[in-house]
């Protein structure tokens, strides 16, 4: 089990569980730039996000790209 870095929700990630026979749901979502995963300056806060937060993060990243930043 994994804990969402953003909201603390418990969820299952196929990548961290190491189950090669069941690809993680996150592989179906668009990949984010590496900097999108970095949340705190300590460098230790990088982790997985639950489906809801990952989708929200993708939406925000897209919005920023569309705005030309
Ligand atoms: Zn979450």
Assign a percent range to the helix content: 25-40%
Number of H/I helices:
2
Q: β content, as a range?
A: 5-15%
* Unreliable segments of 5+ consecutive residues: none
The total count of strands amounts to 2
**Overall morphology:** elongated
**SSE pattern, N- to C-terminal:** EEHH
- Provide the structure class: mainly alpha
For the largest beta-sheet, the strand count, sense and barrel status come to: 2 strands, antiparallel
Q: Order of strands across the biggest sheet?
A: 1-2
- Indicate how many domains the architecture comprises: 1
Mean pLDDT score = 73
- Kindly, what is the distance between the CA atoms of the first and last residues, rounded to a whole number of angstroms? 35 Å
Radius of gyration: 13 Å
Each distinct ligand: zinc ion
Describe this structure in words.
- The protein is mainly α and 69 residues long.
- The chain has one domain.
- Helix content is 29%, strand content 6%.
- It has 2 helices and 2 strands.
- It has helices spanning 14-17, 51-66; strands spanning 2-3, 10-11.
- Strands 1-2 form a two-stranded antiparallel ribbon.
- The longest helix is centred in the last third of the chain and has 16 residues, at 51-66.
- It is elongated.
- The structure holds zinc ion.
- Zinc ion binds next to helix 2.
């Amino acid at each position: 089990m994994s804990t969402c870095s953003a909201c603390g929700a418990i969820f299952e990630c196929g990548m961290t569980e190491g189950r090669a026979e069941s690809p993680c749901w996150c592989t179906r979502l668009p990949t984010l730039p590496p900097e999108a995963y970095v949340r705190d300056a300590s460098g230790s806060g990088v982790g997985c996000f639950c489906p809801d937060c990952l989708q929200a993060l993708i939406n925000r990243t897209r919005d920023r790209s569309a705005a030309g930043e």
